[in-house]
C-alpha cells in the first residue's frame, strides 16, 4: 500500500474523529437496540439522536397534521436541559394510520400545570385558556381594557398570570389573574405600572415567584412612526414588582432591537433575542452586559435564528434556526438547538416541520411547547416536547393563530 | 400592528411562498437500523466534505428525511444505504454552492477542521494533506473521501456519485497524482 494513500486514510480518520459520536448521537452509540420502543411512559427508548430520527418523527406528525389526543405522559418532573431521547423519534406504525382508525388512549393528566393561556394575535387579539394535555380550547378571558391594548401575557408558576397593557404613552399597566385547577380564570386586576410601553411584538416574562418581571419596551415620551424626530431607544427592563426597583439595559439600535423575552424561575437570567443577561449585571448597554448565544449564519449558510428562550433553571437557552432561500424560509429546515450557558456548547435538540418556531417552557422545565407554522395548516401547530424523554405530542390547535403562550 | 407578535416576524405570505408539502408515508425498522449503523459515519463524511459539523449534521438529517419520504417507493431495502450516501453527497454539494454565494455576502463560517485555525485536529502533516485535498476539484474530493474514509469499492462510489466506475478510477488516479505533485512527493 503506498504512502500517500495511507496518509490519506490516517488524515481522514483523524479529521472524522473530531466528530464525537457521544456528542452527536449519544444513545446510538451507547445503548443497544431496543425493539420494544414506542410505548408511552417507558422513558428512554431505543432510537437515539436528535438528528435524523427526529426529523422523521416530526415529519410524520407534520405531514398528518390531524388533531389527536395526547398520549400519556410521564409523571416525573425534571429540570430542563436533559437530552431528548427517543420515544417518538422512531415513528411507530400507528403514527401513520389515519387518525380516525387509530386507537387513542385517553390523555393522562399532566403533573405540570394542566392549562396554559394563549394570546391569539388577530386583528382583535384575545386570550383563552387551553388544556395543556390535549390542546382543547377553553374559556376566553375577559379584559378590563380594549382588546387592541392587549400587549403580552406571561406566567412564572403556571397559576398566576401577568398581562400587560399600555397606559398612555409612558407606562405599561400590569394586571394579574389566576387559573383554578379546572382552568377557570379569575378576573384581571391591576396591580402595578412599569415604565415604558411594550410595543407589539415585543415581550414580557415573569419569574417563578411572580415578583420579577422582565420586558422590552420603548422609553417614555418617544413616539413611533416617521413623525418622531428622534430615533426610539428601546430597553430591556427587569422590575421587582414588590419593591418597585427597576434595572434597565438599553439597546444599541432603535425599534428593531426588541423581541421575545424569557426569564429563569429565580429571575437571575434573562433571554432576549439571541442574548442572555445575568440580571445582577450593572445597568447600562445591553450589548455590553449580555452574552451572545448564537448568530445568523452560524449554523450554515443562509441560516437565520429564531427567538431564544431560557429554561426555568437558567442553565440552558433554547433557540430555533432555519434556513432561507431567496429570502424565504425553507420547509423542514427548522431546528431546535440548546445552548449550555455553563459550557458554551450548543447541541441540536431536534427538528420540526415548518418554520418560524417559537418555544415556551412549563414552570417545571420538563416540557416545552413548540409552535410552528406550515403551509398545510391554516393555524399554528403546537407540539409539546418532553425534555426528559424526547417524546413529542401534537396538540389540537384549531384555535391557534400566531399564539403567544404563557404556561 | 405587526402581524406576528411573539414570533420571529415573518409575514404569512412569506411563509406560505417558501413551503412545499410533504406527503405522509411509512417508516420502519429499516430507518432505525440505518440510523444506528451509519449516521455517525455519514456525519463524519459530510464533515470531511464540508469542513464543519453543524452543516454536516443538517445535511445528514435532510438525507434521512429524504429517505423517510422515499420509503414507500423503495422496493429494495439494500438500496437505502446507497440512497443515503448519494443524498449526503448531493446535500454537501448544495451547501458548498450556497457557501459560494454566502461568501459574496461576507457570511462567516467556522474554520474547517483541517485548517490551521482549527485546534480540533493534531498534526501538521494531516492538516497540510487535507488542505491540499480541499483544493482539489469537487468530484475528486468526493471520490477520495468515499474511498479512503468510508472504504467503498469503486462500484459503490460510482453508485453514490452517479458516475461510471471508470470515471471513479480515473478521477482517483488524477487526484492522487495531483496531491503527490502538490506535496512534492512520490506516490
Describe this structure in words.
- Chain A is mainly β.
- Chain A has 2 domains: 51-97 and 295-407, no CATH class; 142-292, no CATH class.
- Chain A contains 5 helices and 26 strands.
- In chain A, the strands form 6 sheets. In chain A, strands 8-9-10-11-15 form a 5-stranded mixed sheet.
- Chain A starts with a helix and ends with a strand.
- Chain B has 187 residues and is an all-alpha fold.
- In chain B, helix 2 (29-50) packs antiparallel against helix 3 (53-70), helix 2 runs parallel beside helix 4 and helix 4 (80-104) packs across helix 7 (154-161).
- At the A-B interface, helix 1, helix 4, strand 17, strand 18 and strand 19 of A face helix 1, helix 2, helix 3, helix 4 and helix 5 of B.
Structural class of chain B: mainly alpha
How does the major sheet of chain B shape up?
none
Give the integer mean of the pLDDT values of chain A.
74
Can you summarize the main beta sheet of chain A?
A: 5 strands, mixed
Report the average pLDDT across residues of chain B. 74
Shape of chain A: globular
Distance between the termini of chain A: 63 Å
Features of this protein?
heterodimer, A: mainly beta, 2 domains, five-stranded antiparallel β-sheet, 5 helices, 10% helix, globular, B: Rna Polymerase Sigma Factor, Chain: A, disordered N terminus
Summarize the topology:
The complex is a heterodimer of chains A (407) and B (187).
Chain A: H1 3-16, H2 21-24, H3 26-30, H4 52-64, E1 115-120, E2 126-131, E3 137-141, E4 152-155, E5 160-167, E6 171-178, E7 189-195, E8 204-206, E9 212-218, E10 234-240, E11 246-250, E12 261-263, E13 269-272, E14 275-278, E15 284-285, H5 286-289, E16 290-292, E17 303-310, E18 316-325, E19 328-329, E20 334-340, E21 346-352, E22 355-361, E23 367-373, E24 381-386, E25 392-394, E26 404-406
Chain B: H1 12-17, H2 29-50, H3 53-70, H4 80-104, H5 124-134, H6 138-149, H7 154-161, H8 165-183
